[in-house]
UniProtKB/TrEMBL annotation:
InterPro entries: EXOC3/Sec6 (IPR010326), EXOC3/Sec6_C (IPR042532). It holds the Pfam family Sec6. Residues 107-134 form a coiled coil. This is Exocyst complex component sec6. Keywords: Coiled coil, Exocytosis, Transport. The keyword Chloroplast does not apply. Belongs to the SEC6 family.
Amino acid sequence: MDIPPVHLPTLLRHPDDLFDKLSALKTEFARKKSLIDSQLRAGLRDQLETTQSGMTHLSDSQKTLQSIKEEMIKIDKIASESQNQITGTDFATINLVSQAHRNFNAVETMRRNLEGFAERVAEVEEMLREDEADYEAMPNLLRVHYELTRLRNIRDDAMEQISRGDDPGLRVTLEDYFERLDGVVRVFDERIELIAMSLITLVQAENESLVVRFALIVEAEEKSDQRVMALQEALKDHREIATRFQSITDGAKTVRGYKERFLECIKDAAAPQFEKSRQEFMEDPGGLEKSLRWYFNDLNTVRLGMEQKQLMPRKWKIFKTWAVIFHQMMHDFLIGIVEDPETSSSHTLEIVGWPEKYYRKMLKLGFKQEELGVQVIDNRETELVRDFRQLIIKFLDEWIDRIWAAERKDFAERGVDGGNLETDEYGYFRNKNLIDLWRMLREQLEAAANSKRADVVEGVVDAIFQRLRQRQQAWQKMLEDESARYENSITGDLEGFQPLQDWLVATANDQIACIDDNEEEGRLAYLSDFRKKFSPLVTPQYMDRAEAEVTTLRDGYVDLSTWCMAKFASLVFSVDFRTVMPDFFTPKWYTTTHMARMIATFEEYVSDYRMVLHHSLVDIFIEIFADELLVRYLGSVRNKGAKFRRVDNFQDKIFDDLSTAFEFFNSLPNPEVGNAIKETWRVTEAFLGLLTAEKEQIPDTFAGFKTSYWDLQISWVEAVLRSRDDFERSMLNAVKARAAQMDVVRGPETIMSKVK
C-alpha cells in the first residue's frame, strides 16, 4: 500500500492544466483509491482471521492451563498425602535413593550411547556414500535423518550435562569426540539444500518420492524447533519449575532452522533465473514477458505438482507461500531495474506496462492482487510515465535551446555576407534552422510514440505546442528589441539595418511555411504534417483540445508574419522617412514632393523584395504600408508648425498628395488590393471636410465622420481643428457636445482606430 507522494506543482504546471488534466487526475486518484480500499479490505479480512485464530488458540490455551493446574493440584495433594504417610527421615531417604537411581540410569544410558557413537556415525557415513551414488533417489535419506537426529540429541544431552560442571577440559574433549558428527551433519545439510534448490526440477521429473521424503524431514525438524522454542520460552518465564524437569527434556536442545533454510532455498534457486531474465531484458527491452516465462511455469509446477498432489504438508500452503516469495522477488527485480541509473527509457516503459499483464497471469493461477502483498512496482506507473515524458521534454527543451542559441547567434552576426539566411526552392528568404526544428519535433514525437501510451504522447504534444507558442513570442521580442534600436536612434547609426529588414522578411516567410499547405503538390506544411502524425497516437478526447491548440498556433503564425511586415513598414517610416514626415502640413510642405519620394521609395522596396518574399505576403505588405502611410499622413496634423491657412490653398496640395498615392494604388498588379486600399483612403475626404467646413457645419461634419468611423478619436479631431487657421474654442466645444449626444454603433475596427 506504499504510494509515492503526489506533488501538485508537478502535476499542474500551468493554469491550463487545471482544466486539461483535472478529469484524468480524478480518474487516476479514483483508481488508486479503489486499489487502496481493496488492499485495506483484504488486510482487514486477514487481520480479523488472525485475531479470530489467536482468540481461539488463547481460549484453548486457557483450557489447557486450567487442566494442567487441576492436575498439578492433584499431584500436589497426592504428594502431601504421601509425605504425611511417611516420616520425614524415611521420605528424605527414599527421595535420595530415587535420585541416585535416576542418575545411575542416565549415566548408564549415556555410557552406552558414547560407546556405540563412533560406530553409528560410521553407519550414517556409509548410507550417505550409498546415496551419493544415486542422487536421483537417495534411498537412505529418511534413515540418515533419523539416525542423525538421534546422534545429535545424544551430543546435545552430553554437552548440556557437561556444561553444568566446572571442568572446561572435559568440554573440549567432548567437542573433539563429536567433531566427526559435525562433518556428517554438514554433508547431510548440503543434500537437503540440494533437494530444496531442485524441487521444481524434481517435480517436473516426477521424482515425487524424494520430494515427499524431503517434506517429511523438514516437517519433523519444524516440529522439533517449535518444541525447543516452547521449552526455551518456558525456561525464561518459569525458571524455578523448569529446573525440576531438566532431566526429562530429551531431544534437541537448539533450533536447527530447516524450514527457514528451505524457504531461503526457494529464493536462492530463483535468483539466477531472475539474473538471466535481467540480462535478456536489458538486451531486448521488448522481451520482458518472454524472459519471465519461467516464473509462471515454476508457479504452475508448484500448483499442479506439489499443491494438488499434496506432496507437502497441507498446513504449509506451499503454493501461496511459494507465490508470495516469488512475488516479492519480482517486486525487487523490477524496482531494481527501475532505479538503476543505466536503465533506458524503453526498459522503464516496458516495466510500466508489465503490472497489468502480470496480475492477469497471477489471477489465472488463482491469486488476486491484494493476496500477494506489495504492488509489484509500488504503484509507480504514473510516476514512471511522468518521468519518461519529462525526459523527452527535457531533450526537447535542450534541442530548442540549442536551435534558439544558433538563431540568436546568426541574427547577431547578420551583417556578414548573405545575412546568415538561405533561400528555399522558390527563392524565398528563410531561416537556416527551421527545417532542423521541425525534424527534431518529429523525432521527439516518435520517441513518445514508441511508448505506445497515449498519455505520454499527449504530454509531449502539449509541451511542443507550448514551446512553439513561446518561440513565436521570443522571435517577436528579439525582432522588436532590435528594431527599437533603429527607431529610437539619435545618432542615425544604420549598421545592420538592411540585414534586419531581410530577417523580418525571412521570419515572415518562416511563419507562412509552417502553415501554407500546398494542395496542388499534395505537400503539407510543417504544422499540418505534425498534426497528421500525432492524430492517430492520441485519444479522441484529447484530439478535440488539440484542434484548438493547432488553430491557436496557426493564428499565431499568421499574426507574427503580419507583424513582421508591419514592423518592416514601421522601420521604413522611422528610418527612411524620418526627416520627411515632420514637414507635412507645415509651410515647408507646400514646396516639397515628399509624397512622391515616399511612394518611389516604397516601390523600390516592393521591387527588391517581391522575389524573396512569400507570394501570399506581397499584397499584405503593400496593404500594411498603405495603411501605415495613411495613418502617418493623418497624424501629421500634430507636427510642430502644422497649420492650414486658406490663403495657402492647402486643398490643392492635399489633392496632389492623394493623387500621387492613388496613382500608385492604381498601378498595382492586383486590382482588388488597389481598390481595397483606395476604399480605405476615402477617409481623407472626411479629413478634408473637417478642415474646410464652415464653423457652424463642423458639428454635423464630425457627426457624419463619427457615424462612418465609430472609433474616430476625439483627441485627433481636436488636433485637426486646432490646425485650422480660424480655430476657436467654441468649435471644439460644439464637437464635444455633439459627440455626447451621439449613440454610435460599434462595429469592426477601422483605420481611424490607429490614428491617435
